[in-house]
Task: inverse folding
């Protein structure tokens, strides 16, 4: 495990900063002006468009309001930019040009870091799949028969992937519980979170082109935290046989900083032992998961945050590389800016479940929050936050916030 | 029903031309040069970029290689351009400027007419849903309990929506039949078509914004033919519980000309009687389906085409407007260039089924093609073509081709 790389920006050397020089994630910011690409260092945002304009970085579209052009330039460009930024920010390398391109993190607006071209959600949490199967169908047949063979997934909705901090309204939908004669249309009463990681596809494939797990891993630009907000009652009524649709389509929140594969390299780890042998095209070829500590806090209006979940990305059964190899396996073309949700990350014990559905076992066992409020599902005004970092030796690689507050349903139609 | 509107371009006045002046669909073409927007008239393609440059049309991005800018301009722009083109092409209105912008249809390349932002596939064919439910699950519970209440759908894959004429390879995938101990990875042996119509979303909505059926109908720019190619064996193993994914992701073919709502106005008709009352937000508000004759031909290599299906768009249970209203109902933002597949259109009788799965009843009853070949599912080198037109009084409104030929699976991985 590598040590902290010291920066001339002091706050980056704090062992609890999410943004040491070892990290160098990519995002998009504005400071009362046009959005453009940035990196984060300590408590600062570094304007990459300014560095590009000053000739300190090659032209990779850093003046654009999204990372897609840069990502599409490929691995060599990603590595060169990382090296160059490391050189510019290393302890002792302070220059006016770089200092002039810094902004205090608290003074900027962070935007969706890339244009999400398409969004696919996977289902790689074994415990989550087991728990949901028990609750939605039948404990005796909880894990679907294909689960241990295929990293199954479904296409999600890209148009409502939003950056941390974006508020949204409680979704309306068709609801029909087991006791109801007729369905009705109304606000979801079982609004939930899903703690996930998002893998960002940097390099595309052509239609008809299949890829190995190694090629898939190479294509990934980096990772974000991802909350796949879910309306469990809308989901229960709509999902057979075509899968989840409106239940997921109202909002998905991601963190604003895409943490690169390079920054996560020291934290690679293996997937768990295979319960059944995988087919060759998705077999594990090396450590493709990451040791990333994850947690979720829930905050009732006016109260302090309560930690409701603590787990790790390495609790998953399948890696993003396996999911991506599967995604292209029929010849499905992948594109720069595609986003892949890992699936809800739940560990095996209480306290490690990545959704309220599991934590409260379908609403049967309410949880108690700081300030005394109890919850089964999300109530109006609640704030849910995902937190994550990879713990190094004297430093950590963080992702930034992944926060959302739920507003009441909209009364009007438009 | 209106009569033929006569054009100074004679071939447009032929009662069997798909492109009379009553139609004026929109597409994208090139003639050895850069792709740009066009309309079709008789056996000609009319270059709209040239007309825009000559000041005969307002600047609506017709010089771009996609219709998205024009569609995003809104209904008033769509209507004004239709009126202007009608005036320019009306019998007696011949000018050099317009004549100079014409190309023979046979001399041009037609491209994907718009950038498909996201693609959603619905399931509004009652007979199809019943047939598939019987084959995939259980005849006693063939129609899912939610089917008569919700115009259910699932997100599809936009990256592999291609224009008519695009060849593609037989998809590979994980396969596990009822008799197999273990799954295997190999070429699909049950490759199929799905006869559908595609509705093209012209006007967007915001996240959180719900829409009425009337507002949804207003948002639709026009319609295309759509073949939702499907790998039934990949589908059977992967689809529970998250829905179809790789089974559909390898290719979807659409016709090159988007036929506008205005051209289809004389052909509006009602949905069938409701078996169960619909909730208010998706209730029928008027005639939102269209009377469009549809057929499918299948051509074995070296043989003549065989018609294998003949039906009508009005066999569907739900309209595109209802599907779109449902799609936005949770607050899901819709965007210009979103594509909505209707779902497979199957009538109640033999000869009207829109998929080989149904025509051959899961492969049990082979069909015989011209030249003597028999088929259960698609074989390498087969060509499948969807055909459609709305029949007026002495004219028809056509869609152009929707054709695909299946190549053998790719042996190499990349």
Result:
């Amino acid at each position: 495990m590598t040590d902290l790389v010291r920066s001339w920006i002091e706050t980056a050397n704090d062992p609890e900063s999410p943004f040491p020089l070892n990290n160098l994630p990519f995002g998009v910011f504005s400071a009362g002006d046009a959005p453009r690409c940035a990196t984060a260092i300590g408590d600062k945002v570094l304007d990459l468009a300014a560095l590009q304009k000053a000739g300190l970085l090659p032209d990779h579209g850093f003046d654009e309001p999204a990372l897609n052009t840069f990502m599409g330039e490929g691995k060599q460009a990603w590595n060169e930019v990382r090296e160059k930024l490391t050189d510019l920010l290393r302890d002792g390398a302070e220059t006016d040009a770089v200092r002039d391109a810094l902004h205090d993190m608290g003074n900027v607006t962070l935007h969706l870091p890339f244009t999400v071209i398409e969004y696919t959600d996977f289902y790689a949490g074994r415990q989550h799949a087991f728990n949901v199967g028990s609750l939605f169908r039948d404990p005796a047949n909880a894990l679907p028969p294909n689960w241990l063979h295929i990293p199954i997934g479904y296409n999600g909705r890209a148009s409502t992937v939003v950056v941390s901090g974006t508020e949204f309204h409680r979704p309306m939908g068709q609801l029909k519980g087991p006791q109801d004669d007729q369905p009705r249309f109304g606000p979801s009463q079982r609004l939930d979170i899903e703690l996930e990681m998002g893998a960002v596809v940097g390099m595309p494939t052509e239609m008809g082109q299949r890829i190995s797990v190694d090629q898939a891993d190479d294509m990934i630009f980096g990772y974000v935290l991802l909350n796949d907000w879910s309306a469990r009652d809308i989901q229960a009524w709509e999902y057979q046989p075509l899968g989840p649709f409106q239940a997921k389509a109202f909002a998905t929140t991601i963190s604003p900083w895409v943490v690169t594969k390079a920054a996560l390299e020291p934290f690679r780890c293996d997937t768990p032992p295979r319960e059944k042998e995988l087919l060759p095209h998705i077999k594990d070829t090396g450590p493709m998961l990451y040791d990333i500590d994850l947690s979720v806090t829930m905050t009732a209006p006016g109260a302090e945050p309560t930690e409701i979940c603590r787990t790790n990305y390495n609790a998953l059964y399948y890696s993003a590389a396996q999911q991506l190899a599967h995604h292209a396996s029929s010849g499905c073309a992948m594109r720069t800016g595609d986003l892949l949700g890992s699936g809800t990350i739940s560990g095996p014990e209480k306290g490690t479940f990545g959704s309220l559905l599991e934590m409260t076992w379908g609403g049967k066992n309410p949880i108690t929050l700081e300030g005394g409020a109890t919850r089964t599902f999300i109530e109006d005004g609640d704030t849910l936050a995902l937190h994550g970092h990879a713990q190094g030796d004297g430093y950590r690689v963080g992702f930034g916030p992944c926060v959302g507050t739920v507003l009441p349903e909209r009364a009007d139609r438009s």
Remarks:
- Chain A has two domains: 10-111, 119-407.
- Chain A has eleven helices and 27 strands.
- The mean pLDDT of chain A is 97.
